[in-house]
Write a structure and sequence with these properties.
single chain, about 140 residues, mainly alpha, about 80% helix, globular
């Protein structure tokens, strides 16, 4: 049976979420300014890839202490991590849109976004711990 995550793990997880978000937004800004074709679409795509890559590596190493096994297992982990990221992003968007729709203010939209992110990241942590970076039994 796994123990509940300690406070330092939760703090690291939140900090890494912030770092990944900053990497996403900085990448978007750079690509948006430099892309000669479809700058918004290219910026969103590049930012998503950058944020995903940063968060995956930080989570793998510093949250789940997950070493390299083999290419097949790493591909499985990356696929599950991506699938769970899409699922939890939908939760985030749903809260953001719902709060905007219900209350019609920017403050409500961001409140919904923060609530959705918190719920999404909590669910993502549990899914990644249970399925993506599952503990090996000896």
């Amino acid at each position: 049976m796994r123990q509940r995550p300690g406070a330092s793990l939760v703090v690291r997880y939140v900090l890494f979420a912030i770092v990944a978000t900053v990497a996403n937004l900085l990448t978007q800004e750079i690509v948006f300014r430099l892309s000669p074709v479809a700058p918004l679409a290219m910026a969103i795509l590049a930012g998503t890839v950058a944020g995903f890559a940063v968060k995956y590596v930080l989570d793998k190493v510093w949250i789940f202490d997950d070493g390299y096994t083999d290419a097949r297992d790493e591909a499985r982990k990356l696929s599950l991590y991506g699938l769970f990221s899409v699922f939890t992003t939908l939760i985030f968007w749903a809260f953001e849109v719902a709060f905007w729709t219900l209350f019609g203010t920017t403050a409500a939209k961001y409140t919904g976004a923060v609530i959705g992110l918190a719920i999404g990241y909590a669910i993502k942590f549990m899914l990644d711990r249970a399925y993506t970076f599952r503990e090996r039994t000896t």
